[in-house]
Amino acid sequence: MNQKTSQIIDGLRPNKPHRLTSAEQTSDVIREAITTGVLTPGMKLQEEALTASLGVARNTLRESFKTLIHEGLLVHEINRGVSVVKVTVDGIRDVYAVRELLEVNALRDCPADADISAIAAAVESARTMVEKDDWLGVGTANIAFHRAIVALAGSSRQNAIMRSLLAETRLHVSAWGHPREWHAPFVEKNRQVYEMLARGRRDEAAVLMSQNLKESCRILVARHEEGHHENLAG
Known about the structure:
Radius of gyration: 18 Å
Mean pLDDT: 86
Helix content: over 70%
Strand order of the largest sheet: 1-3-2
Strand content: under 5%
Shape: globular
Distance between the termini: 25 Å
Number of helices: 10
Order of helices and strands: HHEHHEEHHHHHH
């Protein structure tokens, strides 16, 4: 593990000042680090460094590893240990297929009196971050937007699935380059989805969301294949 990776892992701390007490809490911290791009594709996770940083027992960390491996965020290789999963075209397509099911259905089926304030807040936050030229902040607002969409379904199971899917999406985007290149086109697209929903035009909002997710998937697949070909040529 190189010095930079060691420093990143050492910087992983639970939000609360006390030690983590469960594998579930530990999983949340690691998953959030993947979602926000702190942990990147292929990064090796050393048990000793993580137990020290998070203040957990080795058995607790291993339980959280099992959970995140099951979610497809981490991978265990014999004689190489645990690392953040690498991006594949099949993985990108699979994530977006499931995301489309969750997000489109949540929009189409949400009650007319659904509380959409969290969606509005995410859209406004993205606009504010654009004005500040804070594109990592725009990415955080984008995550909040899509989480809030799925939350319309009122299902804790779907919310949990979405947390994992967004973490995988962040892995896919991490190889994109400057976050502005990726997020800029979708700031306005997210706003359009929100405005349709706010006007009670749920079916139209669902159609827009489907189009946006299909476009995101297409762009990421093309970018990944382009990068793969460049690596082969190099």
